Amino acid sequence: LTVATAEALRRELDLLIPLGHPAITLNLNNCTYLDVDGVLALLEAYKRLHDAARTFVLVASRGGLGEALQA
Q1: Higher-confidence residue: 62 or 19?
Q2: Are 49 and 17 in contact (CB under 8 A)?
Q3: Given pLDDT bands bounded at 50, 70 and 90, which one contains residue 71?
Q4: Is-contact 50 56, C-beta < 8 A?
Q5: Residue by residue, what is the 3-state secondary structure of the chain?
Q6: What is the model's pTM?
Q7: Each residue's pLDDT tens digit, 14-32
Q8: Number of C-beta neighbours around residue 49 at 10 A
Q9: Torsion angle, CA of 7/9/13/14, rounded to 10 degrees?
Q10: CA-to-CA distance for 43 and 48, rounded, in angstroms?
């Protein structure tokens, strides 16, 4: 999830969030790299959903990105 893909994620979330689902899950198991733009996109999504009293779930396997996100 990099500067090259963060905007695409934002666009997808812009379509999903208004649908009112109680939770949105993002599977990052195949994500091998996360730059600052990717982190910002995830934090923005979390804030938008949190402010709407909804849940944002990140799925990332153990090791690598999963451990970095947990820290």
Answers
A1: 19
A2: yes
A3: low
A4: yes
A5: CCHHHHHHHHHHHHHHHHHCCCEEEEECCCCCCCCHHHHHHHHHHHHHHHHCCCEEEEECCCCCHHHHHHC
A6: 0.80
A7: 999 999 999 999 998 888 8
A8: 20
A9: 20
A10: 9
Reference 59, options 20, 17, 30; nearest CA is 30
Within 8 A by CB and 6+ apart from 64, the residues are: 32
**CA-to-CA separations, 65 to 21, 24, 49, in angstroms, rounded:** 26, 19, 22
Average pLDDT over residues 61-66: 69
Tell me the residue length of the chain.
71
